[in-house]
Amino acid sequence: MSERASGGPRFIFITGGVASSLGKGLASAALGAVLQARGFSVRIRKFDPYLNVDPGTMSPYQHGEVYVTDDGAETDLDLGHYERYTDIVARRSDSVSTGQIYSEVLRRERAGEYLGATVQVIPHVTDLIKEYMARDLGDEDFVLVEIGGTVGDIESLPFLEAIRQMRLERGPERTMFCHLTLVPYIPSAGELKTKPTQHSVRELQNLGIQADILLCRCDREIPADARRKMALFCNIRQERVIPALDVDTTYATPLTYHAAGFDDQVLSFFGMESLEPDLAKWREIAERVRAPEGNVRIAVVGKYTVLPDAYKSLIEALAHGGIANQVKVELEWIASEEVEDGTAAETLAGVAGILVPGGFGERGSEGKIAAARYARLQKVPYFGICFGMQMAVVEAARGLLGLDGASSSEFGPCEDPVVGLLTEWTHGNKVEQRKANGDMGGTMRLGAYEAVLAEGSLVADVYGGRRNIQERHRHRYEVNMAYRRRLEAAGLRFSGVSPDGQLPEIVELVDHPWYIGVQFHPELKSRPMDPHPLFTEFVAAAVKQSRLV
Ligand code: GLN
Fold first, then answer.
1. Total domain count for the chain?
2. Is there a catalytic annotation at residue 523?
3. Which of 258, 512, 521, 532 does the annotation list as catalytic?
4. In principle, which of 310, 311, 399, 485 could form an S-S bond with 60, CB 3.0–4.6 Å?
5. pTM of the predicted protein model
6. How do beta strands 185-186 and 445-453 pair?
């Protein structure tokens, strides 16, 4: 069903106030999911105020995970939420930063496209923001646009000005402002406080934006009088002050939002009607998460282990693997540097599976190699993702071939570069190139690439007998094909390669219950309703292993 009348899609702008990290991305994703469940088509996009062109060059400490799209864009991790909740494949055009806007404005200025005008934030920057918000759309009923940052930040002003203009140009029939705030509980007063919300709504009003709906994050029920007060002071109808209470599993948010009337109010705002949403699949997922039949302990040996946002999709994908196996996956975060001094066996004793995720740089790499060695020798299920595959190959070259000088040229010159820089490869029927000393931003193998799986391999089994797969990449280095023959003879099978046979995509140990390294990031394509087979099968192998120990 398409509710779209003439006049284009309905834009829902989602802003945040009071504090960051309130879960605006999740709120946008969950609203998208509920609207879909009512039969509408949606698209969700993120506009980020920072000056970086994309988050690809930002440290995970600063920005969390970099989410890669099929079309090879390095984007904000919120796009991962959008994909997981709506299953709509995100595109490059769904992730925009101030850096991109300014680069394009400056390009147009140099090209003389402004015809002698003085180039200014208003109208040139704001016009481009509006253009980007509305470009590359199909016939979506709703476009949800999340504005990054918090209202009041200097950086987000041009975005807020642009959405103010969108309201003026497209009218309330086509635009809605949804503002997410925090309603804190002050224990000493024994009260919920509405003042921060009032202030942040006023901040928006100062910019000419009147919020239409308030979404109030709170750790407990919000009593009717507090909602009445916020409605009155914020100039919003009381039924549009929606409580967004903490949930035990994030996959319950589509259910709790609906129960709180969020989607009903969105539709009533636009004067639209629809049947009740079909939320059965969300109910089922929430129930499965709440009632696992057992637990399984999996160690993640990485660098940013204190910062879960750095591994957002990975954590989700492991949880999906748990859902598929009806178990709760308990993660043990192990800083790779801490297992470099021969303590891997001690630290990893008793875990049912070991996962080494993607990573960059030499620091901690010996710990990852030690973890891969432990998994190989002790026959513990091992799953190496990107860097985790590369380190497994280094380990195999040292341990199985006796090449003590084996390493990755990412860390500098070495005797046996079993992982090295590839400067040319094919993508479809195009040749792509990169330079050893090229820019850091955007010189990686990025986005969806095909791989062909070897018949009779473990990984072909994992993928249910499929021979051709497509997965997302983000890396600069590749396993060196020059070592393939020797490694295969020693038991490390190259069970997945690019269609032209040039790039190794998957390796697996033949004499091992479950030892797989993949050059891509399968976690980016895992969904709660459709867990990625590599995670389902890795968790299944870990469950089997935990019955052994
Ligand atoms: N640092 C490695 C490379 O650039 C691996 C990257 C990754 O794990 N995403 O190839």
1. 2
2. yes
3. 521
4. 310
5. 0.94
6. unpaired
